[in-house]
Write a sequence for this structure.
């Protein structure tokens, strides 16, 4: 009985999953579809604002919203960001479901309409979407005709070849080679095409540089193009290399440039070595400038009379030199019992002396 109940429950769960599977597949396909953009107004004048909403974008992606001229959703922004009102653009980050909502001020683009609100990713995988918009009071002109003849289209993904070296680690300009394959989808040959290679850092606009490729690409043929790319000295961080031809951006390639740690190491060594060298120089200068002790300690010199005394030892000599008087006490005239200490000539001290007359007492 229990087995039958379990089988019935399992069949019921499978039936429910079968019913829900088309809905799940439809939601998954909707999530995998291209990103979409909607506007609160299709027309507004300068000074006003509109609300831009989007769905189907990559979660937590940074987007840039711009008003661009000479563009339609079918062809995209033909002139690149140069035809957009970059100063009045707004940035927005999508939520976990890839949706966003942002208020955008209306500004006149530098070129005439038809205009669009252009939304594109700033970092990561490239994605963009456009919505038709009319700037009230702004000039409207037909789109420029596409040049007849040869047209180039990128057939493969772009890549950056090359690597950094020791000099790059010490701040030399990072350099790479942009490699891609283009095909001529036009009706005439393209000779010596001139490409524009731009490098941008973060949300800043790319700095374009023209580079000419030498060669001829005939209709229906393809060619491998290699163009050098170089950044400024000491550059580091996340960069984007863009490729433009005929006023249209053909491809973008992210480029992560490492930090030149050799420069940091150099400054650390400078902060350690320079103070030590200054200290050594300062000590040398102080040693040269300070007065030297010319008079050194010398032993006391004994008088010449003391040096002539026999049997005087060095310690006794020093003690003798330190005493204020060099005359010994037994040489004093008052304390000499003999005749050796007399300073005068010898004479007789007896009471009767032949040389001294004696006087007799009177009777």
């Amino acid at each position: 009985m229990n087995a039958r109940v379990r089988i019935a429950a399992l069949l019921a769960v499978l039936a429910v999953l079968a019913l829900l599977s088309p809905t799940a597949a439809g939601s998954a396909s909707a999530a995998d579809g291209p990103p979409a953009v909607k506007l609160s107004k299709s027309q507004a004048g300068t000074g006003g604002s509109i609300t831009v909403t989007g769905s189907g974008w990559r979660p937590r992606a940074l987007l840039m919203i711009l008003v661009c001229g000479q563009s339609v959703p079918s062809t995209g922004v033909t002139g690149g960001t140069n035809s957009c009102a970059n100063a009045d653009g707004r940035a927005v980050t999508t939520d976990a479901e890839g949706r966003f909502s942002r208020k955008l001020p209306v500004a006149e683009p530098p070129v005439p309409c038809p205009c669009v609100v252009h939304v594109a990713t700033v970092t990561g995988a490239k994605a963009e979407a456009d919505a038709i918009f009319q700037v009230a009071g702004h000039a409207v002109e037909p789109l420029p005709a596409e040049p007849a003849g040869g047209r180039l289209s990128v057939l493969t993904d772009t890549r950056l070849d090359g690597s950094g070296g020791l000099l790059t680690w010490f701040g030399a300009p990072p350099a790479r080679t942009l490699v891609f394959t283009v095909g001529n989808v036009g009706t005439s040959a393209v000779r010596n095409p001139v490409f524009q290679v731009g490098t941008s850092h973060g949300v800043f606009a790319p700095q374009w540089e023209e580079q000419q490729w030498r060669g001829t690409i005939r209709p229906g043929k393809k060619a491998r193009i290699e163009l050098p790319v170089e950044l400024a000295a000491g550059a580091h961080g996340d960069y984007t290399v863009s490729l433009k031809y005929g006023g249209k951006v053909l491809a973008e390639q992210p480029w992560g440039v490492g930090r030149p740690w050799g420069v940091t190491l150099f400054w650390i060594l400078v902060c350690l070595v320079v103070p030590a060298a200054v200290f050594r120089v300062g000590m040398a200068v102080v040693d040269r400038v300070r007065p030297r002790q010319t008079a050194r300690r010398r032993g006391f010199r004994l008088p010449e009379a003391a040096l002539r005394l026999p049997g005087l030892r060095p310690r006794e000599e020093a003690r003798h030199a330190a005493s204020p008087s060099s005359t010994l006490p037994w040489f004093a005239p008052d304390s000499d019992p003999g005749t050796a200490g007399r300073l005068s000539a010898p004479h007789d001290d007896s009471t009767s002396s032949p040389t001294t007359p004696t006087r007799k007492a009177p009777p």
Confidence is low (pLDDT under 50) at residues 18-31. The longest strand covers residues 175-184. The CA atoms of residues 23 and 196 lie 46 Å apart. Residues 2-31 form the longest helix (30 residues).
